[in-house]
Structures are given as structure tokens and as C-alpha cells.
Amino acid sequence: MATVPSPEQRRLLNDDRLLDRAHLGAMVAQSVVLVAVLLTLFVHDRLHDQLAAIAVFGLIGVFALQMILRRVAISIRQRQQQQFRQTRDSREQIQELFAMTDMLQAAETYEDAGAVLMATARRLLPGYGAALLVFNNSRDRLDLARAWDMPEGFDAPEMLSPSNCWALKRGKPHINAPGDATLCCAHHASHIASVELPMMACGQLHGLLIITHPETEGAFDRLMEMRRLGRALADSMSLALSNISLREKLRTQSLRDPLTGLYNRRYMEDALERFVSLGSRNGASTAVVMLDLDNFKKLNDEYGHAKGDAVLRDVAAQIVGALRPTDVVCRYGGEELVVILPDCSLEDALDKAEALRDRIESLSASHECAISASLGVAAVPETATSATDILPIADAALYAAKKAGKNCVMASDKRAGRDAPRLTAIKAKTH
Q1: Among 135, 194, 195, 234, which has the minimal tally of Cβ within 10 Å of its Cβ?
Q2: Which residues contact 55 (CB under 8 A, 6 or more apart)?
Q3: What is the pLDDT at residue 390?
Q4: Of 339 and 206, the one with more pLDDT
């Protein structure tokens, strides 16, 4: 199938044809002048005037053709210079994009990647403003990660729903140019034109790049011209966003329990050591609540493991919902959970543990089976001296709660010299 030449190629072909014809015409005119001059040597003197006239017209034709040749040559030279500049600019743009890709490989967060994109975009697209939006964890909206050099009258959206953006719905670049009567996205509420470039990698959308220019006249054509470069920026950035998202996912998987979404035991040990060290410097208490679901094996045997998994997830949600954002909830193993309460005394930890026990017991109605938990409480410095011995002490209190009849909270003995009762039990409420 024959390829259709581009307008630039057609202009080059037309210039080449005109140049060839002008050369041939000049050769013919020069031949006419030469023949006229030679004939004056052989013909009668009365014909010299006619031959001179022919020579004059021939010289005029040669001069005219030479002017045409000059204009064509200048046009070709200008086009070659333009092509040279375009080639040089393209080479520089490719070098900038390669440098950007190399820098993005070292970006560990979305903030790092946004800074690299901003620096590159300012060099490649001077005078243009841009905004980078990235999907949140639940992928139900895009949040503004970074914006720079936005023209007056255009505010980058703090958040954006994918259903309001034609670029995200189509997976293709989209130009919002109200002055040129184009179809605009629902979130576009400005008279300033913009081009929106979806960032896709590995078959998945990761973000959106919005590029704007302050001038409204000819905005559509201007954005169409720079769309190719903007798309190259978006493609390079999309790979970086994909890598960062993958690293965040792997990091989360290494720190979180996949069933409950709680932190795992490894993270718990590091967090406990950190909180106890901070508490010892500040003179604050750090409490630990160890929790174990009662008769969980029986529940699995009677209702199945799917039911047991659902109960574990709901118990985890109830615990997280009852605590402060600074508290840490971890899955210690099986149906055993650990809650770390920084800056919390033993007495306050007992109250929180009782509240947790009550919330867990309230799940019995929704799951139509008996759900309860036994809890053991310990604290540094009231009952333990360090992060190393607080877990065994809390575990001993949990064992005491099991022996006391389950579905209750038990606190470990206070250290010598601490004014508090010995083993304290808070029994389950009767209904």
C-alpha cells in the first residue's frame, strides 16, 4: 500500500521540480544566446540587429531564471536550517527525557517523581503550567500531587473523579479549549485551554498530567503542537508512578497482614521498641494489650474457616475503630492480636481494653455465633521495665484471663514500689 506524503514532503518535491525546470530553462536560454552570438559571425550584417535582440531577450530570460533559482535555493536553505533546528531541538528533548528517566529511577515517593517532572517540564515547555494528579490507594479519585506555573484564572483541582474526565475515560489525550468550542471535561471550569494526558503503564492508569498556557488566542493549535512532547513526558512519568506504586504495595505487604490489614509481628516489634524508648525519654507510659479470641478453633470447626476469617476481619476493624490514630494494632499470630498504646497509663489501658472487649462481644449478634475475647494488659514502667519483657508479662496476664473464665480483661502485677492493687480483673458485663 502506497504511503501518502506529508505536506512537508510535498513542498520539498515541488521545490525540487521547480529547481530542475529552472536549471533546464536557464540552459536553454544560455544556448539561445550562444547561438545568436555565433550566428553574427556567419550571417549578413543586416541580420545582426535581429540576432542582438534575440541575445538580449535570451540574457533577460537567463537573468529571470537565475532569480528564480536564487529564490528556490534560499527557500531550500531556510527549510534545511529549520529542519536542522528541529533536529537539534528533538535531540535535546530526547536527551532531557533520557535524563528525566534516569532521575525517576531514583525517585522513591510521588513527591520525588513530581519534583523531577517539574524540573524537566520547565526546561522542555517554558511558559506552560502543569499539574500532576495521582490515584489514591482506593483508586476512586485522583489527588493533586504537584502543580507549578499555573496561569492566572486556572486552579488545579485538589481532587478529581475519573468519571468527570474525558482523558481518563477514553485513555487518550484530551484538549479542553472553551475558546475553540471543544468538548470540555466536567471538572474544567476555566476559560484557559488545557491538554490532559492520562498516564498509563502495564495496562493500568496511574495518574493524569494537565498542561496549560496563559494565552487564549490560538490555544488549541498550540496545544496540538506540543501534545507529542507532553505525551512523552506523561509516558516517562507513568512508568515511574507504576514502579512507586509497586514498591508501596510490596512495602505494605511486608508490613501488613493480608487477611486483617493489621501490622504484622515484625513491624510490631520495631514499633514497640521505638515507643518504649520515646516514652522512657519523655517520662510517659507505654501500654500493651494482648488479645486472644475465645474458642476460636471451635468456631472454625463448626462454621468453617471462611467464617473464622470474616470474624477476624471484623474484630480487627472494631479494634482499629475504637483506638487513636497513634495507636498500633498488630496480628501477633493466629487469632492473637497485640495493641500498642503509646503515652497511656496502665489504668487508662484497662479502660480501653474493656471497651475493646465489649465491642468484640457485640459482633456475636451480626455473625450469629458466640464471639468473645480475653485480654491481658501490661505497661512500661508500671509492670515492665523494657520492650523485651512487656510482651511476656502481657501474655501472662492474658493466660490469667483465660484461667479466670475468658471474656474478661486482666492486668499484670505492678512492680515493687508502685502503689496499685495486685492482679486486677474486670469481668464481662452480664446481659
Answers
A1: 135
A2: 32, 33, 36, 37
A3: 92
A4: 339
Query: Residue 214 in contact with residue 224, Cβ under 8 Å?
Result: no
What pTM did the predictor assign? 0.54
- 125-129 average pLDDT score: 87
And the C-alpha cell for 359? 465491642
pLDDT tens digits for range 418-431? 544 344 444 443 33
Lowest mean pLDDT among 97-106, 116-125, 249-258, 389-398: 249-258
- Cell numbers placing 363: 459482633
In whole angstroms, what is the distance from residue 378 CA to residue 397 CA?
8
Chain-centroid distance, C-alpha 335:
36
Long-range CB pairs of 6-15, under 8 A, 24+ apart, other chains included: 11/79, 12/79, 15/72, 15/75, 15/76, 15/79
| Spatial distance between the Cα atoms of 194 and 300, rounded to a whole number of angstroms | 57
302: helix, strand or coil: helix
Higher pLDDT, 198 or 18: 198
SS3 3: coil
User: Which pairing describes strands 373-380 and 409-411: parallel, antiparallel, or unpaired?
Assistant: parallel
d(CA 307, CA 330): 21
Residue 193 phi, psi (nearest 5) = -75, 155
Q: Residue 286 pLDDT > 90, yes or no?
A: yes
Q: Please, which residues bridge with residue 195 across strands?
A: 175, 211
144 CB contacts (<8 Å, ≥6 apart)? 131, 132, 133, 156, 157, 158, 159
* pLDDT higher than threshold 50 for residue 175: yes
- Locus of grid cell 527557500: 75
Q: How far apart are CA 209 and CA 194, in angstroms?
A: 10
Give the Cα separation of 288 and 341 in Å (integer). 6
Q: 208: closest CA among 144, 126, 113? A: 144
Strand order in the sheet with 424-426: 328-333, 336-342, 286-293, 373-380, 409-411, 424-426
pLDDT value at 8 more than 90: no
Residue 420 has what pLDDT?
43
Which residues make beta-bridge pairs with 342? Answer: 286
End-to-end CA distance of the chain: 85
